[in-house]
Every structure is written in structure tokens, then in C-alpha cells.
Specification:
Length: 334
Amino acid sequence: MNKDKVYKDLKKLLKTEEPVEVISYSESGEEETGICIIESKVIKNAPMKEYTSFKVGGHADILVDPGHKDRLVKTIIYLENENIPYIIMGNGSNMVFRDGGYRGVVILTYSNVDGSNMGDVDVHDSNVTAGAGILLSTLAKLMAEDGLSGLEPISGVPGTLGGAVFMNAGAYGGEIKDIIKSVRAYDPASNTVETIKKTDMDLGYRHSIFHENGKIILDVTLELTHENPQKITATMRELTKKRNAKQPVNLPSAGSFFKRPEGFFAGKLIQDSGLKGLQRGGAQISELHSGFMVNAGDATAQDIEDLMSVVQAVVFDKFGVMMEPEVRIIGEYL
């Protein structure tokens, strides 16, 4: 693709001076409604290590932060018409971009743009509809204050709601599929927005239908239950305490690196293979939790893939189990 042309086209396409009504939330959780102009961001040669939790990887040709769902759709329509490769990314907490970067456009759904509607929240009794770009931790906090329960197990997952649905994120015995009701998604193939029910999402272990169908999650509707706010908050605090004690939260990582093999636990297989603390370059199997791979200092994406390959080979040799990465590895080799 002609990077300079695409950059100029997207800057022009997403430039707007049209004010829109937005709903945002203060630190105390108070709803605030206002009128503002939402600016999109288009960045050329974006360093993906700055946008992903592993803090590794090369440059993407272009990164787009639409800041608004309508502009997200406009961006996709343009890229589809021009046959330009693109990928959707939330908070970058489950992705590694290779050191050669990504030849195409990365579109952010998690947005820091002031007044963005990518993470708006609408509550009707126990049904909650939220934008795909909201962080799970933010949504969980807001729901706790409203006395709505269901998000506690995944409240510490460092990703967006859309990313959680895409991967059917789970933790501490709970998964997003336990509380999801429906999704509103954009289908580039038909240029339509449709509502997809839970029963049609093929939600399994770290999998959803969105891996295959190419549809882009815009909003998610959850079905929660009423509970005492203090009880919800106490549960979330207890899970946070447990997470901080057992997981390497002080080092860059992408959470649990490998999927849980059927009948086994990934971390135990790795530890029983004598790989705890093993390091390749700056990538290391965590000494705190063997299921985590961490950036122990100036790791490259290649270090991560090299260490992944060692773990796969040793575990397979010892136990006959092939470890599959839960983390999505994208882009080109250096």
C-alpha cells in the first residue's frame, strides 16, 4: 500500500468539526453528559511496543484511533474498498507484534480520545450495554457502584470488553460467556450493523465466532444480577489481592501465555518440565507463575517466540502435550 496516501486519506476522512453528545464518567463514577468535538488520531509508523502490554514489537504502517463508532465504521469501509490490510485492537493486552512490524493499518477500539463513545455505558435494570472499547476494570468498577454483579471474576483482566468477547476471556472460574446476552457488530462484507445473540457466538475456551466471521464488535449487552455494592467491591478486592500475590503484575506480559491443554494446567506442565525462570534474551518464564511469560528487560518479539518454541518442544518431549499460545502473534519478522 502507499503509506503516505493512506495516511493523508484517513486524516481527511476522519477530520471533523461536528459536535456530538457524549456521556462520560468521573473518577467517582458520576455520569456526565456534554457536547464536544471528538478528534481522531492517525499515526504513521506507530511503535506497537507503546500500544501493547508486552512492550515489544516493531512499527505498524499506520495506527488509527477513531474515537467514535461511526468513524470506526467509516475507516473500515475505506480500507475494505482500497483492499488495505487492517487489524482491530483493543488495549493490546493479548497481542504481540513481531519485530518487523505490521504492513497495514491497526485500528484501536480502546480510545483515550476525550469524549470518545467507544466505551459508553447504558444501564437498564440488570441489562448493561457498553461500548467495545471500555476497559473491563472500568466497567466492573462502575457496575459495582450500581450494585450489579457478574463481572467480578474478570474484573482484573487488563483488556477491553470487545477483546474479552473476541477471546471469551476468563479468570477465577468465570468467563464473559457467563454474562453476555448479545453483541452489536459491523459486518464489512455486507456493510451492515447487526445484533448477534449469545447462542450464535460459538463461545468456547478462548474462542468466539469473531475469529472466523470478520465482524467488528461495536457494543456488548451483558445480563448481570443485583447485589450489594459492598459485597461486589469486597470480592473484587479479594481477587485483586490474590492476583497480585500469585502473578507477575510488576513486569510487562500478556497474562497467561499458553492456553490450558485439556486435562492439564499450562503453568504446572511448564514448571514440571523444569522451565520456571528460563530466559531467552529479555523474555523469561516468570519465577512467580510459570504460566506467565514476561518481558524481564528489553525483550524483543523474537525473544518471546524463541522462548515459546523452547517451552513447546520441552513440554511435548516430557509429556506429549503440545502447548498452544493464547497470545495472538501478528506481523512480520525483522
